Amino acid sequence: MTRRTVLTDPNDELRIPSESIDVSEIGSKELNTLIDDLIETMNAENGIGIAAPQIGVHKRVIIVDDGKGPEAYINPVIIGRSLRTGEFVDEGCLSVPGVWGYVKRHRTVRVKALTRTGKEIVLKAEKLPSVIFQHEIDHLDGMLFIDKVTEYTKHPKMQL
């Protein structure tokens, strides 16, 4: 595992939408290395989520750590959202250091993705995990949380 450099705003690389991973790539040395490097980088930066574009790789891979350890999600797609939204936490981002703010996020999301081994899963994320998934999937679409901030704050709570 290698710690990679996290790209920071205003780097244009962060605004490029990511490409889907072909199923034939699952299990490959390249994809496994990418996943391991993402986990290593996220942990080294004290994050709870990271997306491949944040290290300059435009592939649809995210890592989410909801407190149970980091998990990789390949080609994640939000397939359902609660009608209710809220500003749950001060969001921060490894790619926007020193900036925090409130973002309206859906309270619950259903996400379809592939695991590292290629198994298709559908999961329901609520509360903080819901925020992490929405934040990281935004990265895959070339969007940063500062594009959606409703109010900037000065208190760091988490970095995604």
Automatic annotation (TrEMBL):
It comes from the Bacteria. It is an enzyme of class 3 (hydrolase). One of its GO terms (molecular function) is metal ion binding. Its cofactor is Fe(2+). The keyword Hydrolase applies. InterPro entries: Peptide_deformylase, Peptide_deformylase_sf. Fe cation binds at C93, H135, H139. Keywords: Hydrolase, Iron, Metal-binding, Protein biosynthesis. Binds 1 Fe(2+) ion. Its EC number is 3.5.1.88. It catalyses: N-terminal N-formyl-L-methionyl-[peptide] + H2O = N-terminal L-methionyl-[peptide] + formate. The active site is at E136. The keyword Membrane does not apply. GO terms for biological process: translation. Belongs to the polypeptide deformylase family. HAMAP family: Pep_deformylase. This is Peptide deformylase.
